[in-house]
Amino acid sequence: MSDDKDTRPPLIKSLGPDALNRYVDKVPHAAALGLEVTLIAHREAELRMPYREDLIGYPETRVVAGGVITTLLDNVAGLSVACAIEELVPFATLDLRIDYMRPAVPDEAICGYAHCFKVTENIAFVRGLAHHGDRTDPIATATATFMLNTKTQHSGGAGAKAG
Amino acid sequence: MDRLQHAKERGEKPDLDGLMQDIPYARFLQIGAELKGHELTMVLPFRDEIVGNPRLPAIHGGVIGAFLEVTATVQLVWEVADIKLPKPIDMNIAFLRSGRPQPTYARATITKQGRRIVQVSADAWQEERNKPIATWQGHFLTKSEIATV
Q1: Which of residues 29-88 of B touch A (CB under 8 A)?
Q2: What is the DSSP letter of B74?
Q3: Does residue B27 belong to the interface with chain A, where contact is any CB pair within 8 Å?
Q4: 3-state SS assignment for residue A128
């Protein structure tokens, strides 16, 4: 594939052929949750999170904590931004809203899907959802905004998240 | 949970450390709870496993959101006598500063308590209480009728 016809997301181009696996390795908490990249496309991404007993938030029903879904959706939303921007610059989550439609089913993996539908000079806008294999029957939906070109060192503002 | 039921029957507050141990995800993040007077402060210790961006390094934003949700949940069962953990309906988090490799603290306040729905707000900070790294707001559904202890 020559460079001018290479339509792959910039993230993939910058990381090379092992990008899918290496992305998760680059984010320590994504690795701690056992996240697997299942989809990388232009402006789109999906992550799969296997069910684990140590992620339970409701011991009586064995349902995973709402916060686990927050993390999954924040992560996949960021990944979709990386798949949407022309040049891989540092960025950070500005705001994240999650609506919980129904409890996740115990023992089932949770998929987090995100679509970065708009990128402006400073901000990327994302919609996402968590599901058990059917995107029309979501566990939770998410709306997120990301600030682009954040600083790569700690400062008073929001810090860089990925890059 | 048995612990919450027993506490309600006795008209007492649930044992905090026990409550944190009962929730596997709170143990996974190693969240601790401190009680000073009647005010609960939750503590998230820094570990490499909670990093989202290793370059800075910065704590994963999702972890900060999850930490605030656990804080809100525990505040709710602490303040409101209920035998079940409240179910989240929605939440909104604004990230204000990156989470540095140091302990993070959080406090939650019940802003509106209705019969079925409760609104909680919470914020997280590190070195300075007046420089929050994130603010959080969410609604919970409480199954049984709420009665203040």
Answers
A1: 48-56, 58, 60-63, 65-67, 69-70, 73, 84-85, 87-88
A2: H
A3: yes
A4: strand
